[in-house]
Batch of 2 targets.
Target 1
Amino acid sequence: MSSNKFWKLLGALGAVFALPWLFLIVIPFLKMSNAEPVPYSEEDGVEGIAAYPDKTLQRHGASDYGRQIYAAEGCAYCHTQVVRPTYAGPDMWRPGWGGREEDGLARETQPGDYATEKVAMLGYQRIGQDLSNVGHRITSRDLMHQHLVEPKSLDPNSGMPAYKHLYKKSSIGSGYVPTGKAEALVDYLMSLKKDQKIPGAIVSGS
Amino acid sequence: MSERAAIDRSARFPVLFFFTSAAAWLLVATLLGFFSSLKLSVPGLWDNCQFLGYGRLFPAHMNALVYGWAMQAGLGVVLWLMARLSRNKIEHPVAIIVAGALWNAGVTLSVITVWFGFGNSMPLLDFPAWVWPILAISYALIVVWILPMFRQRGESLIYVSEMFVLGAVVWFPWIFITANLLINKGTAPVMAAGTNAWFITNLSYFWMAPIALAIAYYIVPKISGRAVFSYPLAQVSFWLLAALAGWTGFARYMGGPFPAWMSAVSSTASIFILLAIIVTVVNILMTLKGATKIWEFSPSLRFTVFGMLMLAAYGLLSAISSTYFFGKNLQFSHFVVGLDTLAFYGFFSMTVFGAIYFIVPRITGSEWPSGKRIRTHFWFSAYGIITLIICMLVGGIAQGGNLAQWDQAFSTSFVTSSAYVAGRCIAWALIAFSNLMFLYQLALMFVGKGRKSSGPTLIHAEPGKVESAKAAAGLN
């Protein structure tokens, strides 16, 4: 086969794929990684100068370590962190999923909500609850720990396995003592609050 | 020795190396699939053991299935097909085997790291950042011997199988490196997750589908002794697939935190790809028109045809689930697992089994020991995968329906779908048994314990009675 024809075919194979690669992946990627923080205006009635994406808020320390534990245990295989608009699913109707409804702050998730994480844990399946705003739903650390040690004690029908290997058996009584990993994971879970007010947004009920 | 036999002999060790190590990984993957499903249906099981959590077993299962089995079996097929079609001997078998061993080391690391809790929850890309270069480099060291074979081919006519093989070989590293770079080095968290979804569907369309189709376009005409029904149709479907597949993926996050056009484009692409798939599957089936009885006897053809039907089912189900109407209930449900398994096991593996049953006797110079065991392999695999897909499809609809009922307790969706997860568990047990059968036969061939005979092993015919089987099938 002539060398010319070989390169032509290879070029054609490359060209047809280069198009979606460029427009669906590379360009959106570059745009999203260079997003600027959006300032609040007076109408928003929010103190502070900028909303997300604010890279200075990048997770570090316990909170990012917690995200790593979350990822390593494969939490994202059963838990999503996506609240879809109603045209794509009734997520907003589930109590607490969209955020603090009572304060008029519930909303769908936006790209900036994940700006502080290295990788967005959007999730593969939804076998368990959506965790976008779990930090607002479970506000007590003890309850969060209890959920990780004995999920069925909170909901007998729960399909969540226990994560006892993140805890040590207490030497007194029958309780469990969290390890550093468990504390970091709880730190991360408590920090999951994706209902920050968006600059210029029209919020329902306002 | 004829030219063809010389080519087959040169392919013997590298191709057998890939097939046997792939089959071993497949057994590991099916067992992990079984235990992960078991854990999901009985969540309280093995509560104290960190290595038996679903969140670790399931990704380990996916990694073993894709990188251990699908990539290696695909590479074996690609090597042999390229050698045969370009009429070139494989010049450096030792170099290929060494690179293959490196690939296996990479796969082992990708399974072990995830299993031991160093994963990052990105399906199929969840190994630590230092693992993927091992896979990428060993892949490059393998295919660097494939491209020159194609370039030095004698004929000017390019077979459609060659185009599919060439496409798969070129596209896979592209998507693999892109996705890994964006996830590990990127600074756009949302795009990392989106690229992950894009990688999974692209893996199906740019590795699994082209290799399955390359096999079908080679084996079906070869065994039936007929020309491909329509060569232009085959080419059209190839370019349709090539042009559309890269746009898919984001339909997995409909309503997700992406610009809305991205999932809309992906949905559209998934629906149009159905056209390419239907065209090509019909083209292959039409080649067999009037000679369908052969597939009762020929193991290769039976597996390949079944694989093609599964490919059509995959195209249809992914098109359906990419529409908002169905997708809003199906996305994030068990249906996703069903769809991915349909790609990795349903159409890809079944077609590749067809190829392996065709290739191994030619490169080893002996026939499969038992037609009965091939039949067992086929039926257990076929029943297994169909059970799995139906369970995940119906279970996904049930689960998605419950999720949509926002005023019910969330756990209702888990309770409703748990029976279907038990079905998935049974399905993996069936598939694991069938693969034990397959690995056993392949191991016999590997150590030279195949049947020495001039006639091929057929499914229903006694060894040596090939002629009567052929007559019954309307051949001769």
Target 2
Amino acid sequence: MIKVKNLHKKFGGLTVLDGIDEHIEQGEVVVIIGPSGSGKSTFLRCLNLLEKATDGEIYVDDEQINAPKVNVNRVRQKMGMVFQQFNLFPHLTIMDNITLAPVLLKKMTREEAVKRGQELLERVNLSEKADAYPAQLSGGQKQRVAIARALAMNPEIMLFDEPTSALDPEMVGEVLDVMKDLAKSGMTMVIVTHEMGFAREVASRVLFIDQGKVMESGTPDQVFNNPQNERTKLFLSKVL
Amino acid sequence: MTGLQVWWADFCGDFYSSFIREDRYKLLLDGIGVTIKVSLLAIIIGILIGILIALCNLSRYKPLKIFGGIYTDIIRGTPSVTQLMLIYFVIFASVRLDKWIIASIAFGINSGAYVSEIIRAGILSVDHGQTEAGRSLGLSASQTMIRIVIPQAVKNIFPALCNEFIVLIKETAIVGYVGLMDIQKAGDFIKSATFKPFMPLLGTAVIYYVLIKLLTLALRQVEKRLRKSDIR
């Protein structure tokens, strides 16, 4: 589904991604772990073109999406993104946050979008908040709305950029629960996180990225219980 | 008669000769009309120019950026009286337009420079994550700007814009320089007829104050509605 070939990203003189090759199959839940500054988030942001790769190729469904004349907006509609800081639109109600993109991009009529919005809010247990504004919600609720907003576009892939890192500890669980449900439903997901327990439980594959390279890749059992790479061992010894 | 009674009798006499005799209040009423007319048109022109210049300043295209910079620089660096007279007596000297329209254009050009800076700051004040969220949903850059960034920017800059409107209204008190009879000029006219400066100047000040007070109250209502989404 996603193929990444020799991906490089430089910010000025700083090399953040140093040649990443990766295949992500349909229905896989790939969890990316690694120390801060290792390039995890940049990798994710390159996938939906929020960052422009310096070199290398990214294919989604066999179409190269970082080629010059690609319609970036159409590519992004296939990929939902959930941010660390939620980034809900504060001037819109929860329902309008969810329906804005599908209606504006003519994927649904207003009525269809509202109906879908209600389904999604039910799925994240926030039906009663449809008419509230983001400022009235807790962090965990905001992040669940952000997930619903991304799902409203019926994406093929969901990208999560440290979705629980900005949350108070007691709210992490409710967001992870929603993500677990989503994984069970067969959604293809790429998740950058520091929640090792979650990675162990939900991931079909774990990638350890350090210094802009994939240092280790395997099932949670392989990576957590029997890491081969020295850096992986060092990192896990600090976080587990 | 006590001193107070003498003063009061003087005051009333002064009031009568300044405003009532020869229907002089009508001068002020006409003046209010001129001030409002000039200010309103100038505010509209100022907002339009302000948006254009702000877009120039935020543009990635160098010549536009330079143009925006020079415009703001020149307007802010010269007195508005000078600008008004230049535009009226030089640039529009041979153009047949109503005086008040030319004056409005002059004030609009002036205000546009300040409004553009307010708008630019407003757009930059919206968190970049908002743009990223919009783009990640598949919205285009302009859809993101119009539906997500600008509505939030407007809310952020509203108080600063109101302030600019108020400054602009008071600034129009110099239109007498090009022969328009606004509130200030009407007051001056009465003063030169009665030779008593106190009452016409007091009247002028009160009228400006009331006008601006009413505007402030109205704008505060608008701001309240804009802040609707801040409720917790």
